[in-house]
Design brief:
single chain, 372 residues, alpha/beta, 15 helices, 13 strands, globular
Length: 372
Amino acid sequence: MTSSIIFFSSDDRSLLNFRGDFIRSCVARGYEVHLVTPGDEGNFDTLSEMGVLIHKCVRPQLSAPVSYLKFLRDGIKFQRIVRPTFCLIFFVRNIVIFSVLCYMFPKTKFFCIIEGLGTSKNILQRSKLFRLLFSLIMRISVFRYSSIFFNNTHDMEFFVDNNIVSYRKCILLGGIGVDLDYWSAVRTVEEQNDVQFVFVGRLLKEKGVLEFCRAAQLVSLRFPVAKFVVVGDIDTNNPSSFTREDIRKFERNYPVLFVGHVNDVKGVLVQSQVLCLPSYYGEGLPRTIQEAMACAMPIITCKCPGSEEAIIPGKNGLSVPPRDYWALAAAMVAYVSDRELIYLHGQASRKIAEVIYDTTVKSSLIISTMED
């Protein structure tokens, strides 16, 4: 009998863009793969072509709390129909919601990936009461999961130190990984004459979008030839998201080009020289950084969990304090002033990516853990 895996995710786009390689690995291993996710037909067609079975569910929204109950209802329905061997769940909110399935379907082995703590990170740092409540909820939620994958050591240590889970259940994944053959670019010292800084991510306040714009304004005063591009869209389901009006205001006031969501992110990275992600969001280990490193780009990011673990400061990138756009501008100037440094740090990024961020190795780790 063919073993089956079911994935629960509230975002079909992230399944396709960030976990497509892993899904393909599961299919290649001979698993019958099921995806329970909301989304549009375009993404469903692409996912179906990968050889997986799609089960469309309600899209949960913070503005409609009852939608989460419907999301859980759909999950129970499809879990009952598929009766999978393994179940893998992404995102903290979904891990909590679907923890009830661990008790309802004891023959299925459940696993989850802590992608990052998101907007909760800053609240956890400020509020002891919230930290206690969060720890209690997560302790109850993950109790029946067989193993928990973490993308960075900070999140794993937080879960262990707050008695949410024991070390024996923890697996340090260190990023989902990327296809190193696809995410690649040929770089030369000569091509660094025109420097384009690119930001890739959701347009959330904690992602450092405003800091990127303010730093761009400072740098452009001294180096008017430098270019600044923001790739990504607003997130209407996240209270920390900027609005359309905010973005229009940024476009008027700062020398930054906002291109919105693009399907060909690689094309933008190849045309850019430096990735800038000044995020103080609760990142896991940003996929964007992994992609940029594979494309031989230096990285400018913040000294925050997740992001800072992806680089070796002074070797393949520079790290700056969170929310400090003056320091961010200084890091940008360091690259604009020394084009050879861009090349050297970019080559170092590629070498690190080849050792650490190979998606085939990451996928094998997840699958072998589930099969153990």
